[in-house]
């Protein structure tokens, strides 16, 4: 790798994540249509679910945190050979989970999140940056859930825990999504839109995050404890309303004149939609795949793409202005998510899934066409990073 690529955490991980996002979906479509068969350890759907979360999404999180924690604390995070080593750990785990041996693949895969957690914990703890202790806690919890997933899949723990820990991991990432979204969306709006006054209400923050944490718990123990359907359904509705109100307080309509800005509230708006779809799925009104993809493709991936665009522009010394390519990539991603949500309850399931996958790949191809050159070249202003 060239030196600019290892100058700051966002560079290798945004590149790896965006390339992998496209490649992994192409492989998944090949598997879905019977043109490709994966190994016995993570076959088919398990590979797709695991790799989109612990491959693609976790890579974006690592790149974001390695960059943001340096800004939050004023202390270094991995760069150079250390950063290259962490990136290589992630990449090798992805390859070995397909090629084997599975034992080494699992070891490397499970090791990645703790390595990231340690790398960001050191500057956060040294600087007594107490506001971000919760970020360390989320990564530690995600590391434990990831370990549970592999132990259950390998037979060392009850099999139901593999599915439960995977869903709980997704829900835990949503907690981080809401935490970061609640910081950046109001802050960016306040800084960019004259006269705006986005705000938080303490009681609403308690309800919003309390409901998300309870959802993590319900996901983890849901298969072991029988709950009346109205209990999780009510929880999902409460969470949906809380996050819709939370978004409304950030004055999202004031961002409409700034595409790089409005992408983030659009992404966040997928969260209450996904939670309402999840409530409906408990009554079998919609298929579970609808809320899962509204959450992962709609909410998580949309915010990640918007954040990757903004942070890459800012940290490479460029103006924070969305290009036509940015607009196209983000819009095609929304189309991909919408099609995938509809596909879950459609008689044309496979055709729509393929169409959604093609749109997803196109979105990330557009993203890479614009940002890959920025990620591998030095800052245009000559500064380090």
Description:
- Helices cover 76% and strands 0% of the residues.
- With 385 residues, the chain is mainly alpha-helical.
- It has a single domain, classed as Cytochrome C Oxidase, Chain A (Up-down Bundle), CATH 1.20.210.
- The protein is globular.
- The model has no long low-confidence stretch (mean pLDDT 94).
Average residue pLDDT: 94
* CATH architecture verdict: Up-down Bundle
The CATH homologous superfamily is termed: Cytochrome c oxidase-like, subunit I domain
Q: How much helix is in the residues? A: over 70%
Order of helices and strands: HHHHHHHHHHHH
**Dominant shape:** globular
State the separation between the terminal residues, measured CA to CA.
15 Å
Write a concise keyword list for the protein shown above.
mainly alpha; 385 residues; 0% strand; globular; Cytochrome C Oxidase, Chain A; 12 helices
What is the element layout, followed by pairings?
Elements: H1 10-32, H2 44-73, H3 80-99, H4 102-126, H5 133-153, H6 160-192, H7 202-221, H8 230-248, H9 259-282, H10 288-315, H11 324-343, H12 349-376
Compact overview of the structure:
The protein has a single domain (3-376), classed as Cytochrome C Oxidase, Chain A, CATH 1.20.210.
